[in-house]
Amino acid sequence: MHPSRTFRANHRLRQERIQRNWRQHDLAEHLGATTLTIQRWEKGSHQPSAYFRVKLCTLFGKSAEELGLLPATTECASPAAEGSSDQRSVATAARSFEGRRWWNVPTPRNRFFTGREDVLKLLHTRLHPDQTPTLPQACALWNLGGMGKTQVAIEYAYRYARDYQAVFWLDAENDESLMTSIQQIADLLELPERLARERTQMVLAVQRWLAKNSGWLLIGDNLENGDLLQALLPPLHQGALLVTTRHPTCGPLAEPIELPPMSSEEGVTFLLRRTRRPAPAADQASSPEMTFTRSERSAAAEVVQLLEGLPLALDQAGAYIEETGCSIANYLQRCLHQRKHVFARRGTHGGAHAASVTTTLLLSLRQVERTHSAAGALLKTCAFLHPEAIPEEMFVVGAAHLGPVLGPVVADPYQFDLVLAALRSASLLTRHPQTQTFSFHRLVQAVLQDQMESAERAFWSQRVGRMLHAVFPEVELTTWSQCERLLPHVLACTTASADAGYSQEDIELCQKAGDYLFQRARYKQAEALFRRALDKQEPALGADHPQLATSLARLGTLFRHQGDYEQAEALFQHALSLGERVLGPHHLEVARLLTGLAALYADRGKSEQAELLYQRALQIWEPLEEAEPLEMARALNGLAVLRRNQWKYEPAERLYERALQLRERVLGSKHPEVAMTLSNLATVLQATQHYEQAEQLYQRALSIWEQTVGLTHPDVAYALNNLGEIYREQERYEHAQSFSLKALHLWKQVLGADHALVAYPLQNLAKMAQTQGNFARAEVLFRRALQIRERQLEPIHPTLMLTLNSLAALYLEQGKHDQAEPLSRRVEHLRAQHEATEHHDALTTLQAVAKLTQEQGKDV
User: Fold this and answer.
1) Under a CB-based contact definition with an 8 Å cutoff, are residues 387 and 439 in contact?
2) If DSSP states are collapsed to H, E and C, what string results for 801-833?
3) SS3 239
4) Which residues does 636 contact at the CB level (< 8 Å), separation at least 6?
5) Category of 242 on φ-ψ map: left (φ > 0), alpha (ψ -120 to 50) or beta
6) Mean pLDDT of the chain
C-alpha cells in the first residue's frame, strides 16, 4: 500500500449489507470473494476493483456512487488480498474489462462447484473465440431441472472470462425476464437506445452491437422459447452462444450437449465439500473432504446413488446436513424413511437455486401438464414402473386399462408420439428408439408418488397392475424374453401396491411373474411374489378357498427346490388337506398336489410315503393322459426317480422313457423339461455301466440347456455332476475334476453351500482324491458330504448309505478299523432296509464289512 494514500470506512456498503441481514461471510459468498476482502472494503483499507464494483452494483441494485465505491483516491486490491487462486484468476479476468465493464454475470462463482471437467472442456472447444470457423460457436446444455446446467454455465463464464472481450448474461426463462436482461446489456454498453421508449429500438441496438463486435460470450440461461433468442442474434456474428435449457433440441440455434448426472466420484466429493466440514488442522490435508472418515465417505456414496447424482438434490442434502448438524448416515435414513419432507425442504440458504428438489421437479411437471393433458396421466402411470427401459408396446397393448384420458392417446401412435415429445421437451423423459423404450429419472418418480395421498396412490398402482396383468404373457419357454422385458416393471408395481387392497389381477400378476422367476431359478425374488399373492388372498378369500391350495403349493415347490424341506412339507400338507376337503380326493388340482408332495418325500428319502402319493396321482392322471400329458409325464418322472433311488433300474428306465415320449410330443425335442428327463434317463444307464450311452444323453441335455436356460441354471449341474462321475469311473480324472467342480460351484452359488445336492459333487471329488492318494482331502470332502446329508435327509436315505460306505472304505484303506467299523455297520443296516444287494456300491460295502470282521475275528 502506498504510504501517501488515505482511506475512509465505507458505511454505505456496510449499511446495505446489514439491511439485508447478511454477515460479511454471506456477502463474500454472493460475490465469490473472501470475508477478509469484505472487511477491508468496509474498513476502507482497500477498494473494490472494477470487476467487483459491477458485481456489487448488480447485487444491491444501486450505483457505485450510492454504495460509496468511488472515492477520490482509489486503489486496486493486490492479488494477495483477493483470496484464493481461483478468486485471483477471476479478479484478473475482470480487470480486463476495466474501462468497458462488459460483464454482467449476476451470480457469484459457486465455491462448491465440483467436477464437470469433460463438459467444460467440450464447451471451451466449441465456444473458444479462436476455434476453427467451421465449428458452430453455439451450444445448448440441456437436461432435467436441477441437473446443474446454470452452475456449469456460471463456472464456464468465470473460468474462461479472459478469453472473451465481453460476457453477457440473459435470463431467458420468459419474455419479460429476457427483455430485462437485454435492457441490462444495453445499460452496460451505454447504448443511446437504452433510453428509448420502444423496446424494439433497444433490442435492435444490442443486436447491431453483437453484429459489429467480436470475441463476446452470450449466455442464455433457462431458455424456454428459442425463437426469442434467435430473433436477438444477428444473422452473422463473431461471438459465442451458450444456452441452458430443459429441451433436448433447439433447432438450428445451437448444438445440443446433454449434461449427465454427477458421477459417483464427483457426487461424493461435492456432497462432502457442501456439508462445510470445519477446515482441517495445519498438519492435515488441505482438502476439507479429506477430513471425512471411510464410513462417512461410504454413506456419502449411498446418498449419491440414492439421489442418482442430481446436483440440486446433493446440494440440498449438503445444506440439510450443515444446518441440522446430523451425520451423512442419518441423512440417508431420513431420505429412506421421510423422503417427502426431506425433498421438500430447501434450507435457509438456497444459494443460486433457491427452490427445493420437489418444487423444481413439480414446476416442470405442471408446465408439461398444461401443454398436453395426457402427459400428467402418463407420468403418474410411470411413477409405479421401473424408471429404466419402459416398453412402449406395454401401453399400446394395455391401453384399455389406462382410463379415458390416457388410454385413447397411447392407442394412437401419433398421439402417443406427441405426449412423449411433450415430456422430452422438459427433459423428463428419454426415449430409446432402438429398443422402443423410454426412461425417467428416479427422483421424478419419487416426487410424483410423494404428492399422492394413499387413495390416489392405490388407484394408480392398481391401474398399472391391471395393465401389466394384461400384457404379461403366460410363462412358457417362448415367452421368456417378453417376461424378462416386463419383469422390472412388475416388481416395481407390486412393491408400490403392497399396501393396496385385494385385486385378482394383482394376485395373478404376482403368480405369473413368480412362475417365471422360479423357472429361471431366481428363487428369492419368486418367493417374495408368491408370498405377496398369498398374503393378499388369505384375508380376502377366506381360509377354505381352493385358490389358497394352489398358492401354498407354489411356495412349497419353491422351498423344496431351495432345500428347505420342513417348510415345503408343511405347505404341501396344508395345501393337500385343503384341496381334498374343498375339491374332493379325485380333483385334478389334488393330483398336482399329490405329485408335488410325493416329489418332496422322494427327495428326503421317505420312499414309502412317496410311493403311495405317486400311485394316487397316477390313478387320477392315467384316464386323462391325452388331455393332460405333461402332468402325467411329471408323475411318471417322479416315480422313476423313486425307482432309481431304490436301485430298481429296469422299471425306472421304462418310466423315464414313457415320460420322455410324452414331453417330446408336447414340448418338442429342445425343451428344458425334456433335457431333465434325458439327464435322468442317463443316470440309469450310468448306474448299469452303459457309460457311452449315458454320456451321449448328458451331452444332449447340456446342449438343450445351453440353448434355452443357459449354463448358469442349477438344473445344468445334474448333467455336469454325473458326467464328472462317469469320467472318474473311466479314470479320466482331469475331465472328472473339471465337471465336478463346475457342478459344485453352480449348486453352491444358486442353492447355497448346505443344499443336499451339493453333497453329490463333494462325494465325487472325495473319491478322486482318495484314488490319487490324497487321503486327508478325501476325508474332509466325505465328511462334508456326510454332514450335509445327515442334516438335510432322512436317516434311511439311500445316498446317505453311499457316503457312509465311501468314508468307511477310506478308513479301511488307511487301516483305521476303529473309525471304519461303526460306519460300515450303519451301511449294512441301511442296505438291509433297502434290499440293495444288486447295487455295486452295496456289494462293495458287504465286502468291506466282511473284510473288516474277518480281520478283527468278529461275526457279522
Assistant:
1) yes
2) HHHHHHHHHHHHHCCCHHHHHHHHHHHHHHHHH
3) strand
4) 618, 655, 656, 658, 659, 662
5) beta
6) 84
Rounded Cα gap, residues 331 and 320, in angstroms: 8
Which pLDDT score is estimated for 605? 87
Give the distance from CA 354 to its chain's centroid: 30
Task: Judge whether 495 and 525 are in contact, CB under 8 Å.
Answer: no
Q: Please classify residue 192 by burial: count the beta carbons closer than 10 Å to its beta carbon, then call 0-12 exposed, 13-18 middle and 19+ buried.
A: exposed
For residue 242, list its beta bridge partners: 139, 219
Give 461: exposed, middle or buried? Use CB within 10 Å, 0-12, 13-18, 19+. Answer: buried
**CA gap 92, 782 in Å, rounded:** 78
C-alpha cell at 446: 419419487
pLDDT exceeds 70 at position 386? yes
Phi, psi at 220, each rounded to 5°: -105, 105
Cell of 604: 428326503
Q: Is the per-residue pLDDT at 356 higher than 90?
A: no
3-class SS at 612?
helix
- Cβ atoms 562, 550 nearer than 8 A: no
Half-sphere exposure of 281 (CA within 13 A, CB side): 2
How confident is the model over 741-785, as pLDDT tens digits?
Answer: 999 999 999 999 999 999 999 999 999 999 999 999 999 999 999
Average pLDDT over residues 388-416: 94
3-state secondary structure of 376: helix
State the Cα–Cα distance between residues 545 and 542, nearest whole angstrom.
Answer: 6
Record the cell numbers describing residue 466, joined without a space. Answer: 391391471
Contact 740, 764 (CB under 8 A): yes
Q: Which three cell numbers stand for residue 735?
A: 475331465
Strand order in the sheet with 437-439: 390-391, 437-439, 430-432
Residue with cell 402427459: 375
Of 484, 488, 557, 515, nearest in space to 710 by CA: 484
Instruction: Read off the pLDDT band of 51 (50, 70, 90).
Output: low
Assess whether pLDDT exceeds 70 at residue 391: yes
Furthest-apart CA pair in the chain: how many Å?
126
Helices 117-127 + 149-159 axis angle, to 10: 60
CA pair distance 109, 161, nearest whole angstrom = 12
Provide CB contacts within 8 A for 777, sequence distance 6+: 766, 769
pLDDT band at 351; cut points 50, 70, 90? low
Whole-angstrom distance, CA of residue 658 vs CA of residue 429: 55
Q: Can you tell me the distance from the alpha carbon of 523 to that of 757, in angstroms, rounded to the nearest whole number?
A: 16
What are the φ/ψ torsions at residue 119 (nearest 5 degrees)? -65, -45
The candidate with the shortest Cα–Cα distance to 219, out of 193, 243, 195, 252, is 243
Q: In whole angstroms, how far apart are CA 71 and each of 8, 34, 45, 550, 588? A: 9, 22, 12, 90, 100
Task: Place 515 in a pLDDT band, splitting at 50, 70 and 90.
Answer: very high
Which pTM value belongs to this model? 0.74
Backbone φ and ψ for 113, nearest 5 degrees, come out as -55, 135
Gap between the Cα atoms of 136 and 138, Å rounded: 5
Distance between CA atoms of 401 and 404, rounded to whole angstroms?
9
Residue 660 Cα to chain centre, angstroms: 41
User: Which residue in this structure is represented by grid cell 430298481?
Assistant: 648
Q: Which three cell numbers stand for residue 189?
A: 454498453
CB atoms within 10 A of CB 576: 23
* Alpha carbon 301 to chain centroid, angstroms: 15
How does strand 238-245 pair with strand 138-142? parallel
Higher local confidence (pLDDT), 603 or 497: 603
Q: Distances from the Cα of 9 to the Cαs of 15, 19, 25, 40, 846, in angstroms?
A: 11, 17, 18, 9, 110
- Residues 159-188 have a mean pLDDT of 87
Buried b (16+ CB within 10 A) or exposed e, 149-185: bbbbbbbbbbbbbebbebbbbbbbbeeeebbebbebb
- What gap in Å lies between CA 529 and CA 531, rounded to an integer? 5
Query: What is the CB neighbour count within 10 angstroms for residue 52?
Result: 24
